Amino acid sequence: MPAALLHDAIHHADNMDVLPGLPDAAFQLVYVDPPFNTGASQSRRTLAMVPDADGDRTGFKGTRYRTRLLAESRYRDAFDDYLAFLEPRLREAHRLLHESGTLYFHIDYREAHYCKLLLDELFGREQFLNELIWAYDYGARTRRRWPAKHDTILVYVKDARAYHFDGESVDREPYMAPGLVTPEKAARGKLPTDVWWHTIVPTNGREKTGYPTQKPEGIVRRMVQASSRPGDWCLDFFAGSGTLGAVAAQLGRRYVLVDESPDAVAVMRRRLPEAAVVSGGDRRRGRGDAPRKREAERA
Predict the structure, then answer these.
(1) Tally of structural domains, the chain
(2) CA dihedral sign of residues 35, 238, 210, 11
(3) Structural domain for 244, as ranges
(4) Statement: residue 67 has pLDDT above 70
(5) Which of 159, 207, 222 minimizes the C-alpha distance to 25?
(6) DSSP line for 148-202
(7) Which residue has the higher pLDDT, 145 or 243?
(8) Domain of 184: which CATH number?
(9) CA angle 169, 180, 227 (to 5 degrees)
(10) What is the pTM of this model?
(11) What stretch of H or E contains 93?
(12) Which three-class secondary structure state does DSSP give residue 97?
């Protein structure tokens, strides 16, 4: 096992300072919930490009690139910076996924179509598995249009011929019309479809961390149950409050979390006290040597 994946870990860093150092094909599941229009100044104000020995541009260490199709889209002017920000990170996600692995890309519904074009180019359209809709009923309502009460989760696999999906492991949900099925089926419930009705994190619930963009464990649990096995490694490099890590720990999976926000890291340290905390070259334990002890118990 590569040293970078010896322990469940929280990295306090820019994800592009961490991802290149992680080993190829190490993760069974990658969950990404990136920020949008954070107001931070981005230095990547270039067209998105792909390596090409005959390309028309020269990059780092003389590598040649060609301009990608997406950068030529008539929509690109408004979103060039955001897509250029995402592109190298999603390229790393593809490298880091195991051949049987799955990416869950959680994005605002207003940007989903632009991001799908980018993911089609990086993963290939044939690796697109699902568009999941997380629907909720919370927040203000407009009288000028249908109120927007959903997020989009784009699901891509590394290899459409080899990906892991175990629907039987997913928590089932009640039938909307239980009288139309047998009592046995009604008692068991049904596998969720690609539309997930699930509340946001309750303000007074046990999950609540106070982190503003926290996602509920229930929706992340479905992803982890379906697309990974006990002992598999999971990655979230916009980790926020650390929901993926919390779910992974509950289900017996391993995790690596990355976020550059001190507030996010503070929340994750409280939520996941056994994780190793890495800041630059410094590695600190949450509480004593808990990860090392847990490794010995697993051996």
Answers:
(1) 1
(2) negative
(3) 3-298
(4) no
(5) 159
(6) --EEEEEEEES-TTT----GGGSPPB--SSGGGS-HHHHHH-B---SEEE-----
(7) 243
(8) 3.40.50.150
(9) 15
(10) 0.78
(11) helix 76-96
(12) strand
